[in-house]
Amino acid sequence: MTQLTIAMPKGRIFEEAYEMLLEAGFNLPEEVEMSRKLMIEIPEENISFILAKPMDVPVYVEHGVADIGIAGKDVLLEQRRTVHELLDLKISECYIASAGLPNTTINEIAPRIATKYPNIAMKYYKGIGEQVEIIELNGSIELAPMIGLADRIVDIVSTGRTLKENGLVEYEHIAEVSSRLIANPVSYRMKSDRIQDLVTRLKKCVK
Ligand SMILES: Nc1ncnc2c1ncn2[C@@H]1O[C@H](COP(=O)(O)OP(=O)(O)OP(=O)(O)O)[C@@H](O)[C@H]1O
Ligand SMILES: O=P(O)(O)OC[C@H]1O[C@H](OP(=O)(O)OP(=O)(O)O)[C@H](O)[C@@H]1O
C-alpha cells in the first residue's frame, strides 16, 4: 500500500476533522488530542498524520511533505497556494465579514482595516473601489476599532458573539468559510488510487 501523509490542523478544526476521519474508518489513536506528539502513524493503513498550525497546512501540502491536508477556506483564499481542493468537508463553518463601530462610514481618504487576512481584505476593498490601508494583526482583531487603531476589521464571524460583546456591527459579508480537503498536485497524480479512496470514504461522512 502506498504511504500517505496527511497534515491535520491543530486547534479549532481538529476535533471535527478527527471525528470525521474516525467515522470514515481511520483507526486514529484516542490519545491524539491530549498528547504533545506532532506525528502519528497508523501502520495498518500506512498513513502518517502531521499535526500543524492551521495556517501552515497548505505550506506542507504545497511543498509535498504532506500529500493531503485539511485547511480552512479562509487560509486557502488568503494564501492562494498551488494545491488541489478536493472536497468541502463542511466542518468549522463560519464566514469572513467586515465590521466596525455602529453608525460609522468609511469615507476617509485611506480607511484603516485591521485583519489577519491582508490579501483577502485588500482584494475585497479593491473590488469595491476603496483604497485602504491594511493593518495586519495576529488575533483579537475586534479590539482594533474599539481602541482607535482601525475603522473596520475583516475577520471570521461564526456565532457573532465576539462582535456583539465588543459593541461592533457587521457591515459586509465577504466570503463563506468551511474546511476543505486539499492535495499536493504531484501526489494527486502519483497516489491517485489512495487519494481517491480517502475522498470516497470522507465524502460519505460529509453532513
Ligand atoms: N469562530 C470560529 N468558528 C468556526 N470556525 C472558525 C472560527 N474561527 C476560525 N475558524 C476556522 O478554523 C480555522 C482554525 O482556527 P483556529 O482558531 O484553530 O486557528 P488560528 O486562528 O490559526 O489560530 P491559533 O494561532 O490560535 O492557532 C480557521 O482557519 C477557520 O477556518
Ligand atoms: O462569531 P464568534 O463565534 O464569536 O467567532 C468569531 C471569533 O472567532 C475567531 O477568533 P479566535 O477565537 O480564533 O481568537 P483570535 O482572536 O485569537 O483569532 C475570530 O477571529 C473571531 O474573533
TrEMBL record:
GO molecular function: ATP binding; ATP phosphoribosyltransferase activity
Record keyword Transferase present: yes
CDD domains, per database record: PBP2_HisGs (cd13595)
Membrane spanning residue stretches: none
Pfam families (alphabetical): HisG (PF01634)
UniProt EC number: 2.4.2.17
ATP phosphoribosyltransferase catalytic domain ranges (all copies): 53-203
Compartments (UniProt record): Cytoplasm
One Gene Ontology cellular component: cytoplasm
Catalytic activity: 1-(5-phospho-beta-D-ribosyl)-ATP + diphosphate = 5-phospho-alpha-D-ribose 1-diphosphate + ATP
Any single GO BP term: L-histidine biosynthetic process
Main location: cytoplasm
Pathway: Amino-acid biosynthesis; L-histidine biosynthesis; L-histidine from 5-phospho-alpha-D-ribose 1-diphosphate: step 1/9
Keywords: Amino-acid biosynthesis, ATP-binding, Cytoplasm, Glycosyltransferase, Histidine biosynthesis, Nucleotide-binding, Transferase
InterPro entries membership: ATP_PRibTrfase_cat, ATP_PRibTrfase_CS, ATP_PRibTrfase_HisG, ATP_PRibTrfase_HisG_short
Domain of life: Bacteria
Similarity-based family: Belongs to the ATP phosphoribosyltransferase family. Short subfamily.
Record note on domains: Lacks the C-terminal regulatory region which is replaced by HisZ.
Record's subunit section: Heteromultimer composed of HisG and HisZ subunits.
Record function comment: Catalyzes the condensation of ATP and 5-phosphoribose 1-diphosphate to form N'-(5'-phosphoribosyl)-ATP (PR-ATP). Has a crucial role in the pathway because the rate of histidine biosynthesis seems to be controlled primarily by regulation of HisG enzymatic activity.
Full protein name: ATP phosphoribosyltransferase
Organism of provenance: Solibacillus isronensis B3W22
